[in-house]
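Reviewer comment 2.1 asked that we show a complete input and output for one of the modelled complexes. We chose the L3UKIRZJ case, as it is the one discussed in the main text.
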Amino acid sequence: MYIRIYATHQDVKKKDLKNKKVVVIDTLRATSTIVTALAHGCRQIFPVSTTNEAKILSSSWSKEEVVLGGEYRGYRFAHFNYGNSPLEYEEEAIKGKNLFLVTTNGTVALQKTSEASEVLVASLLNGRAIADYISHIDPAQVILLCSGTQGHFCLEDTITAGKIIYHLSEKEGEIEGDEMAIAALQLYQLNKDQLLELMKLTDHGQRLIEQGYEQDLNFCLREDIYPIIPQLSLSRIRLLNRGENIGMEKKL
Ligand SMILES: O=C(O)[C@H](CS(=O)(=O)O)OP(=O)(O)O
Ligand SMILES: [Mg+2]
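Response of the prediction step:
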């Protein structure tokens, strides 16, 4: 298996992902939010890039079936039900709902994968489960698509990519990859016992703290609390093997 990492979604064109197995990562905070919502019984999530798109797409459902969520530069939209804080999606109210999620980086990265053969959604909250799944299907090549922040490399997505490679190598021995993959693995191995200290140094970590979201930062670093496999297919994200995922316990 060969691992290739893209540091930002701006680095990749849709055609680069054609027929590829792609794992999308946006640790702060979109993919952490998606994983949390699905772990709490959300029916399916539509990643969209504008509030208008969310409103148009969601109009096919009754109001009771729909939740609108998201943010721009960290701040929630006035007429939406929720923002982009994973903690908001731990509620019973999300159960059975169709979530239309608009975010600055993560949902845009997810929309880039329309030509991929399989798309998975990863965060630190479910990184080991994603690695287990990939090793089980054993593809020749996997692309880890980090969302990045506003077109720039970010540590938090690279750390999650490194964690996935770390767990893959635990199962399969040495993993081949590009130099970003080697760097991501080293970064995770060197910092896995001090993730919070590292994240507090990042632009996004500092911004979340300034915006009053320090709890989000702590939460997004809780490794493997939700061992689920969210899969994007036909423009919506659902749990793979929903029956197996349902009833899983949150490991605190
Ligand atoms: O809400 C977030 O954490 C970010 C917004 S930004 O990086 O502060 O602009 O969005 P995401 O798409 O989850 O990276
Ligand atoms: Mg992000």
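Confidence is low (pLDDT under 50) at residues 242-252. We note this here for comparison with the apo prediction described in Section 3.2.
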